[in-house]
Amino acid sequence: MPTAIAVTSPDLVLPPTDHHTPAAAVLPAPGEQPLAAALADVRTLLDQHGHLIALYPSSTPADHVRRLHTVRALLESDRMALLPLDLPPLGVAVLARQLRQLSLCDFGPGVLATAARLLAHYVHAGAVLNSVARLDRVPVTLKAHAKSWMPGSQFAVLATPAPHLTRLGSPDDRPLPGPDFATRMVVARGPLTTDWVTGTLAPAWRVQGVDEVPPPAGSRAWWGTPKLVEFAAYLPDLPVLHQLVSSVRRETCPWCRSELLGDRCGFCSAPLVPPQPGTGAPSGPAAALPPGAAMRHAS
C-alpha cells in the first residue's frame, strides 16, 4: 500500500486528477472527534499503509496541532510525519494532492515527506481580497492599509513563493509575478465579486487550465477577510513531479535512518550533521537549489 497522506480538514482534499490518485485521510479537530477515535483511525492507517504524512497550514488552531502531536506521542510511532506548511490553505490542498500522486511512485516515505518542502517552492498561491487591513502573513504597506478603507477596493496578493501585493485598478497596479514553467490553476471563490483571477491572471500566467473548488474553511482566518477569491497555480503532471523529486540528491537521516531530501528529516525532525570543512559540498540540495535551477535540472 502507498504511504498515506492526511490533511486536517475535508475541504483540503481536492478531487483526484485521475482514477489512480489515492484519497487523502482527514484528521479532525478535537471538537469533531474523541481522542480514542482519533487514535484508532491513525492506528488503522499505519497498519494499512505503513507510514502516514499529515500536512496542515501553519495557521491551524493550536488545539488541533496539539491533538496531532498527542496522537503521535500516544501511539509512540516514528512512522507518522507532521508537516506544518506556510502555504495558504488552498496551496496546502494542492500540495497534498501532489503528494497523493507521488505516493504511487517509487519513493520511500522519508523522501515523500521531505519532498513537500521542495514542491512548496513551485506553488504560486495567492488571493484577491477586499481588504488587507487584517492581513498579517504578507507584508502590507501603510498606504495599502489606508486604501483598504476605501469602498470597492480590491487587492491582488501573492503569498508564495515570494510575497507580492498590488491594488487592482490603481495607477501603480503591477502584475503579480508568475511561474516560468507550465502550470494549472485551482480557484476557490468566496463572497467577492470579481473575475480578475480567471479573466486576467490566468491568461497572463498562461496556465494550462482552471479548476474551481469550494473555498477552504481556513482561508478566512489565513487571509484576514471572508471576502476573497483564492487561487493556486501548480505543477500538474506526475512525470514532471517525479523527475523533479528524483533529480535531488538523497541523504540518510542520522537518527532514524530514513532517506530524505534537504537538511531535515520529515519523520523525526532531526537535522543532518553539518559537513566538516574540506569534506565536500554542503548537504541538502533540495533546500539550497532555487526553484528555477531545480526545474531546469529536472527538465
Q: SS-based structural class?
A: alpha/beta
Domain count, please report it: 2
- State the strand order across the main sheet: 7-6-5-10-8-9
What's the helix count? 10
Instruction: Give Rg in angstroms.
Output: 20 Å
- State the helical fraction: 25-40%
Q: Span from first to last CA?
A: 29 Å
Q: Residue ranges: pLDDT <50 for 5 or more in a row?
A: 279-299
List the helices and strands and how they pair.
Blueprint lengths: L3 E4 L17 E2 L8 H15 L2 E6 L4 H14 L4 E6 L3 H14 L6 H12 L3 E6 L12 H6 L7 E6 L3 E4 L16 E6 L6 H10 L4 E4 L5 H5 L4 E7 L3 H9 L4 E2 L6 E2 L24 H4 L2 H8 L1
List keywords for this structure.
299 residues; alpha/beta; Hypothetical Protein Tm841, Chain: A,domain 3; 2 domains; four-stranded parallel β-sheet; 10 helices; 32% helix; disordered C terminus
Tell me what the structure shows:
- This protein has 299 residues and is an alpha/beta fold.
- It has 2 domains: 4-120 and 239-298, no CATH class; 124-234, Hypothetical Protein Tm841, Chain: A,domain 3, CATH 3.30.1180.
- It contains 10 helices and 12 strands.
- The protein has helices at 35-49, 62-75, 89-102, 109-120, 142-147, 196-205, 219-223, 238-246, 285-288, 291-298, and strands spanning 4-7, 25-26, 52-57, 80-85, 124-129, 155-160, 164-167, 184-189, 210-213, 228-234, 251-252, 259-260.
- The strands form 3 sheets. The chain has a 6-stranded mixed sheet, sandwiched between helices. Strands 2-1-3-4 form a 4-stranded parallel sheet, sandwiched between helices. The chain has a two-stranded antiparallel sheet with strand order 11-12.
- Strand 6 (155-160) and strand 7 (164-167) form a beta hairpin.
- Helix 8 (238-246) crosses helix 10.
- It starts with a strand and ends with a helix.
